[in-house]
Design brief:
The protein is mainly beta. It has a single domain, classed as Hotdog Thioesterase (Thiol Ester Dehydrase, Chain A). The chain contains 1 helix and 6 strands. It has a 6-stranded antiparallel beta sheet with strand order 1-2-4-5-6-3, covered by helices on one side. A hairpin with a 3-residue loop joins strand 4 and strand 5. The longest helix has 18 residues. It starts with 26 loop residues before the first strand and ends in a 7-residue tail after the last strand.
Length: 138
């Protein structure tokens, strides 16, 4: 089987600068933690004025994979367990951040959280990522 091409063409829904309907988020990396800030708008809602859980899940997934890549371990998500703890309101800024909890030869275990301006963890996720290397074909 031929390896899957994981080239970034700038159209990622979360961070791609070329995607006209994307979120275009920018990320910061401090050597251990990846962070981004997101202020959801009306088009990101599920129920009226409540951010859609799928958008939150997307952010948590993206930041874990982005962290692995930044740390020199390209990976894709194999499993993600999400807890949506508190409804996020449209127009209210959140900080999304991720850390690596465990790194083995083939997998990475990561943790991500979405935190409100008043410090409440509104959602979090644990992800199992599969490292992409010459030995692994997708």
């Amino acid at each position: 089987m031929k390896p899957m091409d994981l080239t970034d063409d700038g159209y990622c829904f979360v961070c791609g600068p070329k995607n006209p309907v994307g979120l275009k988020l920018e990320f910061s990396f401090d050597g251990r933690t990846m962070k981004t800030v997101f202020c959801p708008q009306k088009e990101h809602q599920g129920y009226m004025n409540i951010v859609h859980g799928g958008i939150i899940a997307t952010l948590l997934d993206e930041i874990m994979v982005k962290l692995a890549i930044e740390m020199g371990m390209p990976a894709v998500t194999a499993r993600m367990d999400i807890r949506l703890k508190k409804a996020l309101k449209v127009g209210k800024r959140i900080v999304v951040e991720a850390t690596i909890k465990k790194d083995t030869r083939k997998t990475i275990e990561a943790y991500a959280k979405a935190v409100t301006a008043d410090g409440v963890i509104a959602a979090d996720a644990r992800g199992k990522l599969i490292k992409i290397n010459a030995d692994l074909k997708l």
